[in-house]
Amino acid sequence: MDRRALLTGDFSLEPAPKQPSAPPINVVDEGFRRQCEARLAEMRAADALPGFDLRGVLARNKLSRRRFLQWSAGITAALGLPSVFTPQVAEAAELLGRVPVIWIEGQSCTGNTEAFLRASAPTVSELILQSLALQYHETVMAGAGFQAEETLASAAKQYAGKYVLVIEGSIPTGANGGYATNGASAQKFVDRVASLSANAAAVIAAGSCASFGGIPAASPNPTGATRVSDVVSGVPVINIPACPMNPDNFVGTILHFVLTGQWPATDSLLRPTWAFGTLIHNSCPRRAHFDAGEYVQNWGDEAAQSNFCLYKMGCKGPYTYNNCPSIGYNENTSWPIRAGHGCIGCSQPAFWDQLAFERPLATQIPGPGIFGLGLQSSVDKFGAGLVAVAGVGVAVHAVASGIARSKSRRSESGGDDDSETSVEP
Ligand code: SF4
């Protein structure tokens, strides 16, 4: 990385490794177009599963075809596809009901389910999730007790090898898995995950608890909570982290599967790169204020009212990969930084222990070296590199901002002013 990049804060990481089987989604050619057309024809010929009537759901919720196509265009762009693919993406959305989904929940607040069950003004993504062919979902389904158990066993048998297993919440492994049991049979959740994932086409970890352990795995982690990828093996695992996950990122990932027949490329943390390939800091609408050294210093101060940068209030956007700035939440109504609070890094591993405090990361890291590069010891090498690179970029940038402001003040006062040379943040 050159010095200019560090000074401008325009630093970037090496490209994340991709899964070998994943197509290069940003490179669209005739071969890729034919692949999508063949896949859609295959999906059209497949049996429609009961319970998914997207056109009916949209009509009942007074969402016009025009609105649906606008949503399709947005998802097409988010997936990195040219706009000519919008009709195919729209058709893929209508064919989502060909993919059976089994949704189970472990240690979780049900926030990811709640994210798509909002009662008023649901988005297209939320409506799709509500009506997706959920063969089993403990929160949504009407059945309970032994009836629910029979539904699960029947769906797992009928769609063996074809269903997508969605896991919400972390998996407790302490007390021999005894901290979480499910259903009338009191099956241990860890055993349920193992048996259902063995016959799944793929496993999606919905939210940060399933993806990385989340809050249940925060120190001291009394239940031995762990992430899905520590328990599941032999099938593709895709993490859709955040607290809660963004329904658009979930639907977009399944749409990619319906459209291409393959799961999207992922980074080293198994997150789809189409959604988690960019630092929040790099596309943040407050970035110009960071570059200008203009920071909120206290909640509600003038800088806060002017939407200045939230770095000094603990924003972790420089360390967090997610597409919040471009898609927002609730049909892009808002997202944390737009609402005036810094990013808490909820789509990064161990965010609750290492990122969620309301102070700059640089003031929180013990140990030697620039900003103590040992912080992410529990994160893999990629994550540690991320913190190191971003931390150095923030530090150098802050020095540059401090010097620039000091020079400006000196020139305004017509002389030296050593009192203004302190480095911030
Ligand atoms: S608010 Fe956060 S993400 Fe946005 S520019 Fe400031 S530090 Fe970066």
Question: Any overview of this molecule?
Answer:
- This protein has two domains: 3-11 and 278-420, Cytochrome-c3 hydrogenase, C-terminal domain (Cytochrome-c3 Hydrogenase, Chain A, domain 2), CATH 4.10.480; 30-274, NADH:ubiquinone oxidoreductase-like, 20kDa subunit (Rossmann fold, 3-Layer(aba) Sandwich), CATH 3.40.50.
- The chain is 39% helix and 7% strand.
- The chain contains 18 helices and nine strands.
- The chain has helices at 3-8, 30-45, 54-60, 65-78, 86-94, 111-116, 124-131, 145-158, 189-198, 208-212, 247-260, 273-276, 287-291, 302-305, 324-327, 336-339, 351-354, 381-413, and strands spanning 101-105, 134-137, 164-168, 171-172, 181-182, 187-188, 202-206, 225-226, 237-240.
- The strands form three sheets. It has a five-stranded parallel sheet.
- Iron/sulfur cluster binds at residues 280-281, 284, 286-287, 290, 309-311, 315, 317-318, 337, 342-343.
What does the secondary structure layout of this molecule look like, with pairings?
Elements: H1 3-8, H2 30-45, H3 54-60, H4 65-78, H5 86-94, E1 101-105, H6 111-116, H7 124-131, E2 134-137, H8 145-158, E3 164-168, E4 171-172, E5 181-182, E6 187-188, H9 189-198, E7 202-206, H10 208-212, E8 225-226, E9 237-240, H11 247-260, H12 273-276, H13 287-291, H14 302-305, H15 324-327, H16 336-339, H17 351-354, H18 381-413
Parallel strand pairs: 1-2, 1-3, 3-7, 7-9
Antiparallel strand pairs: 4-8, 5-6
Helix pairs in contact: 4-5, 5-11
The structure holds iron/sulfur cluster (SF4).
